Amino acid sequence: MKVGYLGPKNSFTFQAANELFEENNLVSFASIPLTIEHLENKSIDLAVVPIENSLEGSVHATVDYLFGQTAITVQEEIILPIRQQLLGLEEVKQPQKILSHPQALAQTKQYLKTYYPEVSLEAVSSTTFAAQYVATHPENKLLAIASEKAAREYNLKVVASDIQDNAANQTRFWVLALDKNRQITRNTQDKKVTLFITLPANLPGALHQVLSAFAWRKIDLAKIESRPLKTNLGEYFFVIDVVLKENEILIENAVKEIELLQAKVQRVGTYSINRFT
Amino acid sequence: MKVGYLGPKNSFTFQAANELFEENNLVSFASIPLTIEHLENKSIDLAVVPIENSLEGSVHATVDYLFGQTAITVQEEIILPIRQQLLGLEEVKQPQKILSHPQALAQTKQYLKTYYPEVSLEAVSSTTFAAQYVATHPENKLLAIASEKAAREYNLKVVASDIQDNAANQTRFWVLALDKNRQITRNTQDKKVTLFITLPANLPGALHQVLSAFAWRKIDLAKIESRPLKTNLGEYFFVIDVVLKENEILIENAVKEIELLQAKVQRVGTYSINRFT
């Protein structure tokens, strides 16, 4: 079995994928669209991509790619705490630059502002690349923000550990497949259903009606979010995550009712939540 | 009067600001947080920043900065069509690289995939920087994606015009001020109210109740969006844009009712919409 993931090796997506799959099944890709494209042309069996971070919000590249792609479904969700480490060849008091991926820089903004207010930050393509670059440029007095795994891989010291601004920083990842009946579920306790809903016409009444269909059935929503339809300013679709208990038939009834209201509903997946610490 | 904006000169935010204010009042800043910080410490009177693009969605840097900053209010909204031009010193059949800001690269993704599938794309800090770099590096066979103004400023040829993927590509900008009573409104027809709403407890019932307060009063919502509270995964606040007609008192009643439900409501602004073509 081949499992594609948003690389490079030792990225947070790699760590997430490695929680469910053996390392020798994993294949790295350079971007989220590339990873999912390889799933679509069947050169891989599963794709692991990030979907949401607790600080930065949704990963739009994933949400926007999946919108309208009805052949792909979510098989599993993986929730991983994101810990960022400040790495260097040695403890540098006044580094010339600090390198990392833009999301890692965003997740450590307060820390960097407090301890390195004058140091210029450089956005690079991945946290792994940042660690590798620092390891191979000893003359430059650089630091990188990356994972503990990257520190071990490139023989870097952890200059400061767990520097993420929020202790509860977590990222959700999705395991995607083409085969709707594939089951790799390990966790049967904690399940969700994700729906993309496009409303027929004007927002206020329609969204209220959609939420009513869930509310009066006492169906819990874990999340509701809007994304632009990329048509005109002010036109959106909605990402709705529904908590699945012993109410699967109620959820299906709610969805049918919503479809009767002329809304389009894309069933993105019914999946288990796998939490790691 | 000093009006700060997200620069550099000739950026799309510059163009938006320049629709309402004289060029010699405009002061450029390098980032959205920096622009708003200068408003807060009163070194500028107004700040112009992007808030949403019709393809890319909300500008999180703006939304997240304003959340909780109750001293700042939105005075005006500016809506501008975003046209992207492919610029070069000459028509290069096989450019070595195409440079632009990440958002401009995202907005021309389909065009680049069709016409330049093999060319590497380089993300730089602004479209203006991309144009300037191309103009000053004739030996490198580069192209830039930037505005017509940038083409004129740096004497570049428009190799292909209006290459944005969507003809209806528009961006909303906000004019921010500290003084709630300041009035620079030119357009009195087309008005909105923006609210940031933090729900008291569990999402499903509470959000449905909030929307009910608007729905039964037949108040139109132009937008509803969630952003992470940056506490735990799954905790959000909501950005709600309300269409203001002759119903200001109804909106205020709805807000009061929502506050009685223990939701926190931040009144981000009541403002006119200024559309340009």
TrEMBL record, chains A, B:
Residues annotated as domain ACT: 195-270
Catalyzed reaction equations: prephenate + H(+) = 3-phenylpyruvate + CO2 + H2O
GO cellular component, one term: cytoplasm
Keyword Lyase among UniProt keywords: yes
InterPro entries: ACT-like_dom_sf (IPR045865), ACT_dom (IPR002912), Preph_deHydtase (IPR001086), Preph_deHydtase_CS (IPR018528)
The gene coding this protein: pheA
Protein name, per record: Prephenate dehydratase
Superkingdom, taxonomy of origin: Bacteria
Domain annotation Prephenate dehydratase: ranges: 2-178
Family matches, as Pfam families: PDT
A GO biological-process term: L-phenylalanine biosynthetic process
Pathway: Amino-acid biosynthesis; L-phenylalanine biosynthesis; phenylpyruvate from prephenate: step 1/1
Record PANTHER family: PREPHENATE DEHYDRATASE P PROTEIN (PTHR21022), PREPHENATE DEHYDRATASE-RELATED (PTHR21022:SF19)
Molecular function terms, GO-annotated: prephenate dehydratase activity
Keyword Lyase appears in the UniProt entry: yes
E.C. designation(s): 4.2.1.51
Keywords: Amino-acid biosynthesis, Aromatic amino acid biosynthesis, Lyase, Phenylalanine biosynthesis
EC class name: lyase
